[in-house]
Amino acid sequence: MKSNLKLTIIFLGLIIYSSVSCNSTNRKDDSSITEFTDEEGNVFVKLYKKENGAFYYWETWNTTQNNAVIHWGKLGDIGKDVEITRPTLAEFKNEINSQINQKLEEGYNQIPIEKQYTVAITFQLDNWGNTKDLARREVIRGIITESLGWTGNGRCDDGEIGSGEMTLFADVVDPYIAIESITKEFKLKGVPEKPSFTIIYEGEIID
């Protein structure tokens, strides 16, 4: 009788240990999650994955402290977006960091700026370049950044003007898709200027 009781206790102990061990293994350790938010919950992350010869993007950025937009799709397409809101900063940071880490586990990665292409968009001017042309450059830069941003391909942050030319520089993942998107957006926005495009990679002109 004592022997049977002892065996029953050991058996129950093994069941409890097995259950605890299993739960512990399946539970995601919060300490293993890489944080991409700062102390205030600010976040701006762009991730990419190449699959079957095509790039896919996933990105997120803040709109308010406890709110962010998640935007994803195939490179060159506008894709889809959703807003994430949580009642507290701690809950928001946990949610957004968890989603970023999930995408990293799925094979998405950041592409460093030095590994991206630069597309130079050049317009010919009828003068050396004046303040009116400079203002026009900023309008066009906004159109390019909006187009590249919503198609997941990059942004336009730099430019120069002078010697009868106005040039904007866009850092992009795929330069040919970028040129297609920019050309389409210029047509939609009624941009009358006809630019030329130059593709640069690691400081060398390739097209």
CATH topology call of the largest domain: Alpha-Beta Plaits
Rg computed from alpha carbons, rounded to a whole number of angstroms: 26 Å
CATH superfamily of the largest domain: Ribosomal protein S10
- Structural class estimated from helices and strands: alpha+beta
Taking the alpha carbons of the first and last residues, their distance comes to: 87 Å
Beta-strand fraction estimate = 25-35%
Number of helices: 4
Whole-number mean pLDDT: 86
| Approximate helicity band | 25-40%
How are strands sequenced across the largest beta sheet? 6-7-5-8-9
Largest beta-sheet characterization: 5 strands, antiparallel
CATH class of the largest domain: Alpha Beta
Order of helices and strands: HEEEEHEHEEHEE
What is the count of β-strands?
Answer: 9
| Broad shape | elongated
| CATH architecture identity of the largest domain | 2-Layer Sandwich
Unreliable spans are 1-28
- Count of all domains: 2
Could you outline the blueprint of secondary structure elements for this entry?
Elements: H1 2-26, E1 44-51, E2 54-64, E3 67-74, E4 80-85, H2 89-105, E5 117-124, H3 131-150, E6 154-162, E7 165-172, H4 175-188, E8 196-201, E9 204-205
Antiparallel strand pairs: 1-2, 2-3, 3-4, 5-7, 5-8, 6-7, 8-9
Helix pairs in contact: 3-4
Describe this structure in words.
By secondary structure, this protein is α+β, with helices and mostly antiparallel strands. The chain has two domains: 31-105, q64v53_bacfr protein fold; 113-202, Alpha-Beta Plaits. Helix content is 37%, strand content 32%. The chain is built from four helices and nine strands; from the N terminus they run αββββαβαββαββ. It has helices spanning 2-26, 89-105, 131-150, 175-188; strands at residues 44-51, 54-64, 67-74, 80-85, 117-124, 154-162, 165-172, 196-201, 204-205. The strands form two sheets. Strands 6-7-5-8-9 form a five-stranded antiparallel β-sheet, covered by helices on one side. Helix 3 packs across helix 4 (175-188). The chain is elongated and about 55 Å long. The model is unreliable at 1-28 (pLDDT under 50).
